[in-house]
Structures are given as structure tokens and as C-alpha cells.
């Protein structure tokens, strides 16, 4: 990977039972190397088994061990937040289940947990309970977490939140920018409850981290700590200082391929034919000379050979595509030989693009058309499950095989949330996609998430059933917020009268210029496309009925609903 998430840390930690017979605290730290450090970061965490729960020590040890194992095993394309929350939810569920294997509540598997993940130039904090994370910067010590305690009286309190306490996990999460020289202190209450804040700052800030941890434990004991004593120091010694020149050198390590002609051989692949060419890239059918297998090779356009932002996006296409696994997304192939030029390989899919299919099927069978839409949605789900947005869904980027299988192609405009967390010394292009199908809010600088992909899918669905676009050519002129407010949806049944009202209203909702008015999930959109939603049976701009005619309109609504059900059966069976 070309991205540099390098970070240099020094750590120290101490954990002792103190005056107790058993140490129920647990500490952990893991700093991977290479790409894993870039995509997942380094992790320090501290857990304190609840002393009133007999299995608190087991809960603390289990939480630390499982978090370190499962977090770093989660998909490298996920964000820190999604990865950590998925793992923490599973840990909490397991601890809760273990607690309820016992008849006695004193055997509960309960613990606090505070997690610090340092990825690129950002600190990610996850916290539940009364362990703490502090940051010492420029001589100032700040507590970054909040104790989850319920005060019983002036002298006593109890935990209000802990891992394993409830089926619903409520965990605090925050992010902070990291600077070279930052020092993070993780501690259990046996330490910070018995050392004053200023003294904590003095002891933690010592040059020798090992000695600092030892002094923190000793001072807490001297001050009367009767609990286990655990602390951990993590110092940021150096962050990545990669420059744009450094990044450009890595991105241009492989040269752009020359113009490829049929018969030319490159890295053991013979060019058969050019399939597609644009100002941004080219596609070629090639044959693997070892296996004889046909493949598709995508090459970058020489127009961008001096554009590091373009090259980075091209490199990321292969990285992202290799992590999307779905029968409805074209498969990126891993080359079995070293590359001497910049390109990537995909499976060869026979078929036609969806725009060709639409032109050849001006009056499609509803069941056939909706099946295409369903498969497009399945492909999009594969992207979204990896916290990845396609952002350029259009008929030209969708293939239909002779067996009527749909495959989404092209990864040139994808947005990967996990990669966005990694600092790069260049400005990435955020305005991508095709104007007739992409969400106009994207061009206005809004972050629309999966609703943007749903907008594109709804535009395609509209075109499949009508042969037209939902806003005509108005999206081309949508450059300012006021242009967005002027958009007027063209009812789909104006072009295709057999389309039911509820079907058209579902399209209109997905294509709303207002983000909050759209569907927030593909499942909801598909459900409303295939099942009459009573909320979508009301005609547009229908005035509120007069009170004296309420019964009449209620009867009419019933007749309308029954008619819609009959129309639905005729629509799908026709």
C-alpha cells in the first residue's frame, strides 16, 4: 500500500494486586507493522474487573485478549469506529451471556474498559466504566474520559455502566488530533483515585516512562490505595512526516503502460482487443499466457501521468476492488507475476452494459426489470458492508450477462471511510460521478452516505421503467443550493402509465433533493418498490379533506388500497 500510517511510540506499564489477594486488572498493547499499522493503527487498553462480581478478573482478561485479537482481524477497509464497536458489542454479548450461566449474580462477568487507538494522526477513544485515559500535552494534563458512576451518598458510588452489565452496550467514543510529544496515561481507579491531579501530572511526565509507572503505583499505595494498581503510558515520539514528493515517488514507482495494441505482450498477458477508452482510462481484453484465461486489464490515461491525486485514486481502485466480494460486483484479480507497469486486472464478464439493455428493451417486463434493480442493490450492499460508497453508479457501469446476472463495475469514484482516516499530503478530489445519475448534493459539498448511492440507483430504476431521467437535464444546471430547490420531479407514470402510484412515490422519495426525506437503507427502498406502502398511496399535493367528508375519504382510501393490491398483482404478473 502506498499510504503511510507510520507512527513511532514508546510505552511502559505496571499492574499489581496491591493490598488485594488477586489482581483483577488487565492491560494490553499491540503495535503492528506495515500495512496493518496504516489501516488499523496501534492499540493500548486497560480493563478493571468489577470487584463485587466474582468473575471480574476473567471478564477483564477476556475483554483485553479478545479485543486485541478481533480488532486487528477485522476488515482493513473498515473505520476504527466500526471495527471497534463491532468487537466491543460481541465481547459485551459474550460477557452478559456468561454472567447469566450462574444462579448467583455475584458470579457476574463485569469489567470496565478504556481503549486508545492511534491511527495516522488521530486518537480514537472507546470507554465504559471508571478506568481513565489522560493526555499530557505541553505540561497540561487533561482527563479525556468520563467516569460512569452513580453516587449513592457522599462517600460511596457504584458503576452505572460496565461491559457485561446489560444487553445494550452504551460506550463513549471520541476522536482527537495527535501531535508529536503527546503522552497518554491509562489508569484504573486504584491509581487515579488516590493521587491528586497535579501530582499525577508530575509523576506521569517524567522522562523515564518505566520509572513513572512505578512511581505512580508506589505513590497510590502510600496514599492508602486498597485496590489493584495499574497504569500504562504511551508516548508519541514521531508521526509520519511524509511529504507530497515522498508520496509521489511511491505512486510513480511503476510507469504508465504504453499504448497497447492487439498482439502486444505485457507481464505475461497478451492484448487481444481494446474494449473501452476515455480521457481517464482504458480497458483491454487480455489473455494470461500461462493459463490461457481471458481477463480485462485497466490502464491509467497518460493525460494524468503527473497528477498524484489521480494516480492515488487509480491505485486505490485495485485495493478496494480486491476487498469487495459479491456475485454482483466484478471481481478484481490478483496477478501471479510481478508488475512492471501500472494497471490492474479484472475478471472478463460477457454481456452488455445496462444502457445498451435499456435501449434494447424500451418496454421491459416488470418482473425482469425489478430483478435487475434487486441485483444492483445486492451489489451496492457489498460496498456498503465495507463502509464503501460507489458514488458513480450509472447504466454504463453495470453489466448484464446473457444469464441475466447483474455486475457492477468500475471503482474509480469510490469513497472508503477507513482510508479517509489516513493522512495524505495531497488534496483528494471529492466531486466525482456522472451528473445525470450522481447525487447533486455531492457536487455541493455535502456528505450523503448511502443515500447518495440510493439516489443513483433510483435514477437507474426510473430510467429502466420509463426510458427517461427523473429530472430531465435539470441536474446539469444544478450548481448552487437554490438550483437544488428548483428541481421538480417528473412523475414516472407520465412516461409509463401502468406504473402504480406507490411505485412512483417510492422513486420520488429516493430521489428527493432533501437528504433527510430519502430512504436511509436499500432494504426499505426495495421493499417499497415491490410492496404497496399505504403511506405512499396518497396522491401528490392532495388537500386535507373537509371534516364533514372524512367518512367518504376513508371509504375511498380503502377502495384505493384494494385497487392498488390488484394493480400490483397485474403489474408483476404482466
UniProtKB/TrEMBL annotation:
InterPro entries: CC_SR_Kinase, Kinase-like_dom_sf, PPM-type-like_dom_sf, PPM-type_phosphatase-like_dom, Prot_kinase_dom. Residues 269-534 form the Protein kinase domain. The keyword Cell inner membrane does not apply. Keywords: ATP-binding, Kinase, Membrane, Nucleotide-binding, Transferase, Transmembrane, Transmembrane helix. Residues 6-236 form the PPM-type phosphatase domain. Signal peptide: none annotated. It comes from the Bacteria. Gene3D superfamilies: Phosphorylase Kinase, domain 1, PPM-type phosphatase domain, Transferase(Phosphotransferase) domain 1. Coiled coil: none annotated. CDD domains: PP2Cc (cd00143), STKc_PknB_like (cd14014). The keyword Transit peptide does not apply. GO terms for cellular component: cytoplasm. Pfam families: Pkinase, PP2C_2. One of its GO terms (molecular function) is ATP binding. SUPFAM superfamilies: PP2C-like, Protein kinase-like (PK-like). The chain crosses the membrane at residues 550-573. This is Protein kinase. It comes from Marinobacterium nitratireducens.
